[in-house]
Structure formats: structure tokens, C-alpha cells
Design brief:
Structural class: alpha/beta
Largest sheet: 3 strands, mixed
Strand order of the largest sheet: 2-4-3
Radius of gyration: 14 Å
Shape: globular
CATH architecture: 3-Layer(aba) Sandwich
């Protein structure tokens, strides 16, 4: 598996074939900070889908929304709430691992490929394990 680290706009993914833009969402229906702002600016469907199911969000679930030909956004519910409580950040790595497993299945079907307080050193191994057979592009905004 290859992980490519790029600087740029993740809402304009590069490469051939189908694209999945994956991001972490919370389980309380709060949409309005971080990467979701860029997603909403480009496409209204991921936010609408998320808010439609805001009353029943469950950690580990993923919603795949086709936003244009060959491009899907994956709303991954892997964040408990939106604040760090008692020193525990909202990211839930076990839920993220479940989400990434579902993402891997979807990527195989398609033949393509922040604010939660998580640490990349914990997230990257989950991605590597779940997406063994995929090419992954990780974007960071220009500084």
C-alpha cells in the first residue's frame, strides 16, 4: 500500500479512476467547523445527508455520498461529541477502524481509491491496515 502526502485541496482529488474523499464526523449532528466547511463549499449533498440522519448517528457508521461523476464523500462517524472531556479527545480510534474497513470495501467496489483531536501516529496505522490494497492520498492545506 502506498500513502502519498500532498499539499493541496482534498476536495479536488488527483489521480485516475474513482475517488473517495473520507473525513471524520461526530455523532451529535454538529457540522460546521474544520474540513466539512471545504466540503460544504464545494458540494451541498454530504452535509444534507449527514443532517438528515443527525438523530441516529452511530459510531462506526459510514455514509457514502456521490457528489459528482467518479467522486464520493465518505462521512465517517468516528468522533464522540465535539469537545475534549476529562482529557479525552473526541476521536474514537475503534470507530475509525470500523469506518476504514467499510471504506476499504467501498474502494474495492469502486476500483479506486483535525478537529477530532486525533494523533496521526494512531490514525496512519489504521489506514495502512484497512486499506492494504489501495493507493491513498493524504492532503494537508498549504500554510
Amino acid at each position: 500500500m502506498a500513502i502519498h502526502y500532498l499539499t493541496g485541496d482534498a476536495t479536488a482529488p488527483i489521480g485516475n479512476g474513482n475517488k473517495l474523499i473520507a473525513h471524520v464526523c461526530n455523532d451529535v449532528g454538529a457540522w460546521g467547523a474544520g474540513f466539512v466547511l471545504a466540503i460544504s463549499k464545494r458540494w451541498p449533498q454530504p452535509q444534507a445527508e449527514y443532517l438528515k440522519s443527525a438523530h441516529s448517528l452511530t459510531l462506526g457508521e459510514v455514509s457514502f455520498i456521490r457528489v459528482e461523476s467518479g467522486v464520493w464523500v465518505a462521512n465517517m462517524i468516528a468522533q464522540r461529541g465535539i469537545r475534549t472531556l476529562a482529557g479525552v479527545p473526541p476521536i474514537r480510534y475503534d470507530a475509525l477502524n470500523l469506518c476504514l474497513g467499510k471504506l476499504a470495501v467501498k474502494a474495492r467496489q469502486l476500483q479506486g481509491c483535525g478537529l477530532a483531536g486525533g494523533k496521526w501516529s494512531s490514525v496512519e496505522p489504521l489506514i495502512r491496515e484497512a486499506l492494504l490494497e489501495s493507493e491513498v492520498f493524504v492532503y494537508d492545506l498549504p500554510r
